[in-house]
Known about the structure:
The protein is of the alpha/beta class and 353 residues long. The protein has twelve helices and ten strands.
Amino acid sequence: MRRREFLARVAGVGASSLGTSLRAHSKVPPAPYPATNRTPVAADYERLRFGVSYHFSMNTFTGNDYETGTAPATAYNPRQLDVRQWLEVARDMGARYAVLTAKHMSGFCLWDSEDYDYDVAASGNKTDVVAAFVAACHEYGLRPGFYYCILDPHNEGRFDWNSPVGDRYYKIIRQHLTELHSRYRNIFYQLLDITWKLSANQRWELYRLIKSFSRNCLVVMNQGFYQSRRNRGRIAEAASWPTDVINAEDNLPPEGGHNPRVHFQGKTYYLPMEAWIPTGPPYKPMPPMHSWFWREGFKTQSAETIAGMYRDCMRGNSNLLLNLSPDNTGRLTEEAVATMREVAQRIHSSARV
């Protein structure tokens, strides 16, 4: 049996069933979301308070946060991949959910995608990182989630922040999200990035597609750095709608805290806030943003700074999604682990005061 066939059977989604799945979910009836009142799902998310994300992909091996997918798949080759270490560090910090960059803007997939040749199956290390991540989340008691970037020069044929996605690439997006949510079931959270490249109808279709596999999965459409800086969780951006959570990229909640009763197009919704914060140094090509991916010379921000952002989120009625950056060996560096231990000490000490 070929490797792809074996993996597909184990996952329960072969090539033919994937096609059936895509067709079956193409006309999913409208979901009763986004919520207009505080639902049990929203309340549960708010109680979690603290999550981590992991930026690890082809970018880690090229040293470019904005890797465009021109590097060969074999350039991805972690020699000491240890996803359990990532989640053990998160557990010890007190995180309760975790989000993996299943596909960033390079187009490289951390799972073996069917009929797709820019993924781990074509790389120097064929480990299904998504499967390893979900298993480690369950082992360490964290709820698993995925990140998926819409901007994708590898599949779009050019690097353009704003051009609408074409039909061919949109079909790939739907296939990828179908695979992620049918192979790896009961996913807690799905973050979609650079959603303004999608039409409103496409965003709604993807939102409903994900909900069709897990009705209670939180679908989070990231507002982007400059949008987040402008509105600080007070506004739901039309180009990031529908969403179940107001996501603020590299930005903290507003003074006085987040009010989850957010108005959008004449209607009030209940949208918790999440501050999504990278722990890396400033990203020199695009200040004042911070780095999401590890690269040579990467230095984690100070434990005092990170713990301070944690406290700001807790006071500001916002969850914190703290980004960690495994290196090109496939592990969090000793420097990062030591910093996170100190962060945990500071967090736990302040909680006892």
